[in-house]
Specification:
The structure is a single chain. This protein has 3 helices and 7 strands. The protein is α+β, with helices and mostly antiparallel strands. The chain has a single domain, classed as Roll (ph1033 like fold). Strands 1, 2, 3, 4, 5, 6 and 7 form a 7-stranded mixed sheet that branches. Strand 3 and strand 4 form a beta hairpin. The radius of gyration is 14 Å and the shape is globular. 28% of the residues are buried.
């Protein structure tokens, strides 16, 4: 099973939505499977890119499976899938990507969105967090 990095746009409202809904709307086309792990990344003002949370996929819904309201929102934003999480954890403080194994990768910034990440690297990053808040 493959794990992925998903980047949250520099938008506090979208970040709040991800954590309150325990879901991420995306245009990323993947074979989403129950149990996949997702690392959530975001640019932290004045510090650089950081991991702010991780999630475990419960299931993914196509646009056709969503309510009319959600479907319209997805069409407006170019999203094709709603990924629902069975578990969602906020990492505190955010873990700067440059201080993790991912910091040595050639991809930076937006190019990390959708990048696969090994179980080993993912677990190492999660262990860096001093506080883990369940949602």
């Amino acid at each position: 099973m493959v794990n992925y990095i998903m980047r949250i746009a520099n938008n506090d409202e979208f970040e709040a939505s991800v954590f309150s809904r325990r879901a991420y709307y995306t245009s990323m086309r993947r074979r989403w499977e129950k149990g996949m792990k997702i690392l959530l990344a975001r640019k932290i003002e004045g510090k650089g890119d950081a991991f702010i949370g991780y999630a475990i996929v419960d299931r993914a819904l196509s646009v056709d499976e969503l309510s009319i309201e959600e479907r319209e929102m997805c069409i407006r934003n170019g999203w094709s899938t709603k990924v629902l999480f069975s578990r969602l954890i906020r990492l505190q403080p955010p873990i700067l990507i440059k201080d993790t194994p991912v910091g040595r990768w050639p991809q930076k910034g937006a190019l990390l969105h959708g990048a696969p990440i090994s179980d080993g690297d993912l677990n190492t990053i999660i262990e860096f967090a001093s506080i883990k808040i369940n949602y």
